[in-house]
Write a structure and sequence with these properties.
This protein is mostly helical and 505 residues long. Helix content is 70%, strand content 0%.
């Protein structure tokens, strides 16, 4: 085979992989930041800006392991040894089928699994090419991935529930909850950094071999680094929080490193409910006045580009959710505010973990096509993933997030259960622990499953099953069920249409 005869397939794979990554960014990235936005910890714009960085870094630095699983652990690629170009076609059409379904589902506001989608698409292509025998149905192939779909939400839910229950009984329900919260924050910062630094070191950088240290040594190093960060946070951030929230001082963010040394600041009077209502009405009136004014061309262009960032996704005043939200126990507001920064950290960890795991859904097929185009041969058991493949698809994830991510962010968050900073932090930390662990062992779990399971697990900690929006959960579960067969049917039909069409002689 002369691989460069099929350069057009490689170009198509680039386009379709970017489209799939775009859909992943629009649909799945909301899983990482939905709880932060719905709890009010971050604005939508802030969440988007942070996620663009964390998603890219997670995909680029930790994405190659699960990309190998997607690329070579679903279909028996040795069947294509005599016709590598047929595998190029199959992977190209698989990622097209996956992208079509994920982008369509996003437009409808359905939180679907991109992992389901690409897995189903590759299965459909393999069956269309060589029948069911071409698929690795055993635990070393599809069964391992399918098992993770059921296990990952359960594990994420259990881990998140344990984290929240510990926080609930040790901090939130205690008489001195604020004081206890100040002591707990450095510990949670330690856990968040420890987990992520451990996996970053153990996976290594793209294009290089992982660090040849024992796992015990890696854990020790990450523990030392995280411990240092936690100690610093205790003598800086905790003091800043105490002065700002308990003492009411006008402490600015830049003062955090110097909080122990800055002299007493002016006291900021607490806002009453009337003040908050008046400020909200004034903001709405100002926004209406801006909307009514004629816009210049530059303003119109800016409005189009920023459209995805100017959406209300919190659902906090939705009357249909009022009964569900009312069943969630409310805790001391100042204690809840302690968890805002930690929730941002855990959201970043969840986003980093998502990038490391779900970029494989776009990169796996692309890397296979790229290697065949380079060598003219079907790759071996382990597909080498080029760093630029990871960067290319990571950029697609960021674009999708920035322009279309608000749809699914609106569907999750407070739409599943009432979310506060402490609840959101527990769900995000449980999700990141589950996903980063899966990424480390090369298991492509679904981020949608993990965060949904985590939010349900935390919501059940209210002690009332009616604190969960089971209708929303049912819609989400149904989307999980139909994704795999739909993507598989689309991919299989596309492959059959292209591979078995009459050839002009």
């Amino acid at each position: 085979m002369n691989p460069h005869m099929y350069t057009f397939l490689f170009v198509c794979a680039l386009i379709f992989s970017f489209a799939d990554a775009y859909g992943i960014g629009a649909n799945d990235v909301a899983n990482s930041f939905a709880t932060s936005v719905s709890s009010g910890t971050l604005t939508l714009t802030q969440a988007m800006c942070i996620a663009i960085v964390t998603e890219f870094c997670g995909a680029y630095f930790l994405g190659s392991g699960t990309a190998n699983t997607i690329a070579g652990s679903i279909v028996d690629v040795t069947r294509f040894n005599n016709q590598p170009q047929l595998l190029m076609l199959g992977m190209t059409l698989s990622v097209l089928g996956s992208a079509t379904w994920v982008i369509f589902a996003t437009s409808q506001g359905w939180p679907v699994s991109s992992t389901h989608s690409i897995t189903g698409a590759i299965i459909g292509m393999g069956i269309a090419a060589y029948g069911g025998v071409a698929i690795k149905w055993g635990y070393n192939g599809v069964a391992k991935i399918v098992t993770s779909w059921f296990v990952s939400p359960l594990i994420a839910g259990i881990v998140s529930a344990i984290i929240f229950l510990a926080t609930k009984y040790i901090v939130l329900q205690h008489e001195n909850s604020f004081k206890r919260g100040l002591l707990a924050i450095p510990f949670y910062i330690f856990i968040t950094f420890w987990v992520n630094i451990t996996f970053i070191i153990s996976k290594g950088l793209p294009g290089t071999n992982a660090v040849k240290w024992s796992f015990r040594k890696i854990v020790g190093i990450s523990c030392a680094i995280s411990g240092g960060i936690a100690i610093i946070s205790y003598f800086t951030y905790s003091i800043w929080l105490r002065r700002k929230l308990r003492d009411g001082e006008d402490m600015k963010a830049w003062m955090i490193p110097f909080a122990a040394f800055i002299k007493k600041q002016p006291i900021v009077p607490e806002l009453t409910e009337e003040d908050i209502k008046a400020a909200k009405e004034a903001a709405e009136l100002e926004a209406q006045e801006v909307e009514d004014k004629p816009k210049t061309f530059v303003q119109k262009a800016k409005a189009i580009l920023m459209n995805g960032l100017n959406k209300d996704v919190r659902n906090i005043d939705n009357p249909r959710l009022a009964a569900i939200h009312a069943r969630a126990k409310k805790y001391d507001n100042k204690t809840e505010l302690l968890f805002e920064f930690v929730q941002v950290l855990t959201a970043c960890a969840a986003s980093f973990a998502h990038g490391s795991n779900d970029v494989a859904n776009a990169v796996g097929p692309l890397s296979t096509v790229y290697r065949i185009w380079q060598t003219g041969k079907v790759p071996g058991k382990s597909v080498s993933v080029a760093a630029w493949n990871l960067a290319f698809c990571a950029a697609g994830i960021d674009v999708g997030l920035a322009t279309y991510g608000y749809h699914i962010m609106r569907a999750l968050g407070n739409n599943v259960t009432y979310t506060t900073p402490s609840r959101g932090f527990a769900a995000e930390l449980g999700t990141s622990l589950t996903i980063v662990t899966a990424s480390k062992i090369g298991l492509p779990v679904s981020t949608t499953h993990c965060i949904t399971g985590a939010m349900v697990g935390v919501g059940l900690c209210n002690g009332d099953w009616r604190a969960i929006n089971w209708k929303m959960f049912g819609v989400t579960f149904l989307s999980w069920v139909i994704t795999l067969p739909f993507a598989g049917l689309m991919s299989g039909l596309l492959f059959a249409f292209c591979a078995y069409s009459p050839e002009k002689i």
